[in-house]
Amino acid sequence: MKRTPAARLVDIREMIDAVAAMVENVDLRTYRKDLKLRLAVERCVEIVSEASRHISATDKAGFPAVPWPEIAAIGNKLRHEYNRVDDLIVWQVATEALPALRPTIVRLLESASPSES
């Protein structure tokens, strides 16, 4: 079943919130030591990346400060260059980039037409 753009936005918001909950009260050192946590965060980032590819160019154009190409690209890095994943970069995505992206996703969801839900 084909997922609507609004459903993809919900996926992104849910993954951002999941990552926020996972890294709450965790520091980088603890993150680096916890394989399950790293893998879970990486998977959430992959989902955000994939779902972002289904946001329309028009919607993306309304938020030119968002690094849409980089969001799409990080999923490929995690999937295809898994042996070169830098924990610090994923940590920065988890603790800085995703929280910064959330308000944009919420605004896009608020403007999504009911037929897209």
TrEMBL record:
This is DUF86 domain-containing protein. GO terms for cellular component: toxin-antitoxin complex. The lineage of its organism: Bacteria, Pseudomonadati, Pseudomonadota, Alphaproteobacteria, Hyphomicrobiales. It comes from the Bacteria. InterPro entries: HepT-like (IPR008201), HepT_RNase_toxin (IPR051813). Keywords: Hydrolase, Nuclease, Nucleotide-binding, Phosphoprotein, Toxin-antitoxin system. GO terms for molecular function: hydrolase activity; nucleotide binding; RNA nuclease activity. The keyword RNA-binding does not apply.
